[in-house]
Every structure is written in C-alpha cells, then in structure tokens.
Amino acid sequence: MSKLNGLVLAGGRSTRMGQDKSQLVYHRKPQREHLTELLRPYCSVVFWSVNAMQANELMDSDQLRIVDAFAIPTPLNGILSAFQYDAEAAWFVVACDMPLLTVQSLDALVKGRNPAKKATVFYDSDGHLPEPLLGIYEPAFGPILHQAIADGVYSPRQLLQQNDVQLLTPPDIRELTNINDPAARAKLGL
C-alpha cells in the first residue's frame, strides 16, 4: 500500500458562511486544527490545503500546507495540488466543514480501504452518490484528475462516479454533515 498523507481541505472561499470555515471553532480549537489532530494517527504527515491568501496569512505557521496550484473553483483544486506535490502517496482527504466527523468514520475508511481501487469513499448523506470530500484517493487517481482538468471536468463526485472506486456505507451518516452557512451552524448548536 502507498503511504497515506492527510489533507484538510481548507482553501475554499467560504462565501456562504461569510468567514473562513476552517477557522470556525467547534471543538475548542479552529476546525482545521481539530481535523489535523483527527487525521494524524492515520497518516505519515498531514497538510492543510489552502488558497494563496490563506498561505500569506499562515507565513509564520509551522503547519505543513499545500497551496492551490490551479485556477479551479472547486475542492478538486486542493486534491489535484496534493497529487502534484506527491504523486506517489495516497491522500486521506477531509473537508474542513464537517464538524461532526469523528474517528469512527476515519476508522471505517481506513479499514474499508481498497488500494486496488482508485479511491475509497462513503456514500453521501442520501446514500446514492459518492461523498468526495471525505475519502482516500489512491495514487492512480492523480492521472485521472489531470485528464479531467484538461477535459474541463471539475466535479470530484462526477469523477468518482466515472471510475472504479470502493464505496462504503458510513457508520453514522450525521458525521458527513456539511456546515456551509450561519443558519446551518446555528442549527447545529455546537
């Protein structure tokens, strides 16, 4: 099996939330730090996927980060930038807007990982489609991403649907909850 690197997707614009979602505090620390701690036991190293503005703000931070390298307005930018950084590694990807995520789901992904497939992901909250923002992307997925960008395809979910991936049922569907705006955050009650 390829070495497993962690990637906290934190480079989104957070326009609906009105502030950087990776810095929201749900567990007594910014979400990106909380997720880094969750991923660390599973990974050789954990990176933050950040945009150029965030990279400038983090100049004094010791946290390893990968700056978005492409002009793609989707999370695919972070995943593709990670493969550009290390094409031989598998990438354990976690979106910063999943505050209910626990080791229960991370354990299930690692135990259900099939390195012979292009990726290992859960079914989404509807139980029909792959959830692209929490999963393990094997090195074989890197070339698929590069080709997709060349073809103008920017949806990670679409790429998972079109390729041979391991799909798992999440142990607790609530852990896949995305919090993208202040109303959803208030409703969550954390």
From TrEMBL:
Its cofactor is Mg(2+). It is an enzyme of class 2 (transferase). It catalyses: Mo-molybdopterin + GTP + H(+) = Mo-molybdopterin guanine dinucleotide + diphosphate. Pfam families: NTP_transf_3. Mg(2+) binds at residue 97. One of its GO terms (cellular component) is cytoplasm. GTP binds at residues 9-11, 21, 68, 97. Its EC number is 2.7.7.77. It is found in: Cytoplasm. It comes from the Bacteria. Residues 6-163 form the MobA-like NTP transferase domain. The keyword GTP-binding applies. GO terms for biological process: Mo-molybdopterin cofactor biosynthetic process. Its main location: cytoplasm. Keywords: Cytoplasm, GTP-binding, Magnesium, Metal-binding, Molybdenum cofactor biosynthesis, Nucleotide-binding, Transferase. Coiled coil: none annotated. CDD domains: MobA. InterPro entries: MobA-like_NTP_Trfase, Molybde_CF_guanTrfase, Nucleotide-diphossugar_trans. GO terms for molecular function: GTP binding; metal ion binding; molybdenum cofactor guanylyltransferase activity. The N-terminal domain determines nucleotide recognition and specific binding, while the C-terminal domain determines the specific binding to the target protein. Transfers a GMP moiety from GTP to Mo-molybdopterin (Mo-MPT) cofactor (Moco or molybdenum cofactor) to form Mo-molybdopterin guanine dinucleotide (Mo-MGD) cofactor. Belongs to the MobA family. PANTHER family: MOLYBDENUM COFACTOR GUANYLYLTRANSFERASE. This is Probable molybdenum cofactor guanylyltransferase. It comes from Spirosoma foliorum. The gene is mobA.
